[in-house]
């Protein structure tokens, strides 16, 4: 039996890039994150080729051979179960119904592969970087949509019977537009949390607010596309612009309101908020807006212990894993399963 050191790779497949990391058998990172194009729209075989490019770059930089990789963690931006993609999402059509996990394992000579979705992967990554946290962890990540994941004590993601658990963006909240209507979510349903808290929701809200007479002279009413206006909104919020602050405050409040129900179901103890807002200059203020919404809806016991009022029962933190969180998460999952 070979005495060569064993390593574990994490490959995070995104819509445009694959982010990859390598860890050793102790879970310590080896080298830097490697990033290559993903080519997901061109099909899974085209993406497999890019995954191999990433693996070759990781192993070359570490000075090891591929046969020293004891397992690979893979995450995909789509719902899946036991390695099989269930829906197209942002992928090419040939991914659907394909056992991506097993086909990739065969392609790379039988190296075992663990696969999950990107929300679970990010949650696992946030758990992995918190070396002193041993309880459970709930992640929510506002981005283009609203992703999430839940990690059990010990470091295993709760994926559900079909790998479809923790679609946190698709719980319903009792909030309506000013005209009484419910916004349509990307899933096709009405009134989902993601329809209120996401980049897509931000674009809708910017368009609604700028159409009001009182905002006719706002600097964002410059004829630029709504996508650009939504992108620039963070800059305005950082400068204290009332319109921008109001939009982000609403999103934060509604996210907190929805989190109160998720905490009531899972009682995680720790809620981590990811996504691009973790990098903004006004993130402390945004977190306070989240807590406002949470306090409005949450039972008091999910704020402080009824036995010891000095004991906080639910902590809130910003994500710290950065761009490599999902890749780190699946690398650790592979280490746990295959070492």
- Rg calculated over all Cα atoms: 21 Å
Average of the residue pLDDT scores: 93
Count of all domains: 2
Class from helix and strand fractions: alpha/beta
- N-end to C-end Cα span: 15 Å
| CATH homolog superfamily of the largest domain | ATPase, nucleotide binding domain
**What's the CATH architecture of the largest domain?**
2-Layer Sandwich
N-to-C order of helices and strands = EEEHEEEHEHEEEHHHEHEH
- Biggest β-sheet: strands ordered side by side in the sheet: 3-2-1-4-7
Largest sheet: 5 strands, mixed
Helix content percent band: 25-40%
Low-confidence stretches: none
Overall spatial form: globular
Number of helices: 8
Q: Mind telling me the CATH class of the largest domain? A: Alpha Beta
In total, how many beta strands?
Answer: 12
Structure description:
With 339 residues, the protein is of the alpha/beta class. The protein has two domains: 7-129 and 323-338, ATPase, nucleotide binding domain (Nucleotidyltransferase, domain 5), CATH 3.30.420.40; 137-319, Nucleotidyltransferase, domain 5. The chain has helices at residues 44-62, 100-107, 118-129, 199-210, 226-238, 242-266, 283-297, 325-338, and strands spanning 7-13, 17-24, 34-37, 69-76, 80-81, 84-85, 113-117, 137-142, 146-152, 156-157, 270-273, 315-318. A five-stranded mixed sheet has the order 3-2-1-4-7. A five-stranded mixed sheet has the order 10-9-8-11-12, covered by helices on one side. Helix 4 (199-210) packs across helix 5 and helix 5 (226-238) packs across helix 6. The longest helix has 25 residues, at 242-266. The radius of gyration is 21 Å and the shape is globular. The two termini are 15 Å apart. 40% of the residues are buried. The model has no long low-confidence stretch (mean pLDDT 93).
